[in-house]
Write a structure and sequence with these properties.
Blueprint (H helix, E strand, L loop, with lengths): L2 H27 L6 H33 L8 H27 L5 H34 L2 H17 L4 H16 L19
Helix pairs in contact: 1-2, 1-4, 1-6, 2-3, 2-5, 2-6, 3-4
């Protein structure tokens, strides 16, 4: 398996939780109360699985190697991807602040949650498309077999640094939220023995 295939598998999991977040925002738009516990779980997923682990692999391993191959950060795609990662963090922070405000009795903050949620969903869906169909193809063509193997080792270390079982726990959370919100589950069933993201 190539490093980019691992990242694309993780994209499918992230898209699944984006679908859940979109459903949360639509329920709020329809006048329902926000399920604060589920919203917090989704934001925990985005902060740790999507940002710390997945974006960490890209920012600390993949992008620097691409730049060593001559891809420009200033004029090239890695710079754009980094800007979009940061924009995503701003939206996650906005959603966290909105949840805290709602918990404190400020129902008007529901509108802030919804607007940040929908903007985040749109941003990440487009971001994932750019990486899947442009950036990762560049990487596949640029890296030698030895460099691919080194990236795989670096990715494995990044997951290990998250803590034993953490990666799998977030995959389980993605499945739980998908069932709760009735969205398509893209995470392989762990009981089948086929793990996601290179896990077995």
């Amino acid at each position: 398996m190539r490093p980019t295939e691992i990242l694309m598998q993780e994209h499918r999991v992230i898209e699944q939780v984006l679908d859940c977040l979109e459903a949360m925002a639509q329920r709020v738009e329809g006048g329902e109360e926000l399920d604060q516990e589920s919203a917090k779980q989704a934001l925990d997923f985005f902060s740790n699985f999507a940002d710390r682990c997945h974006h960490g692999k890209e920012e600390n391993c993949l992008f620097p190697l691409l730049e060593q191959k001559g891809v420009s950060r200033e004029q090239g795609p890695t710079g754009v991807m980094l800007q979009e990662h940061e924009a995503g963090r701003q939206h996650v922070g906005g959603m966290m602040a909105a949840i805290e405000a709602v918990a404190g009795g400020d129902s008007s903050a529901l509108a802030d949650f919804k607007s940040h949620a929908l903007a985040f969903v749109s941003l990440l869906r487009e971001h994932i498309q750019k990486e899947d169909h442009c950036l990762f193809q560049m990487a596949d063509q640029a890296f030698s077999e030895q460099e691919q193997q080194q990236l795989l080792q670096d990715f494995s270390q990044a997951e290990h640094d998250m803590g034993a079982g953490t990666h799998e726990n977030y995959l389980d959370l993605a499945t739980k939220l998908a069932k709760q919100y009735g969205v398509q589950c893209r995470v392989p069933d762990s009981s089948s023995g086929a793990g996601c993201c290179g896990h077995h």
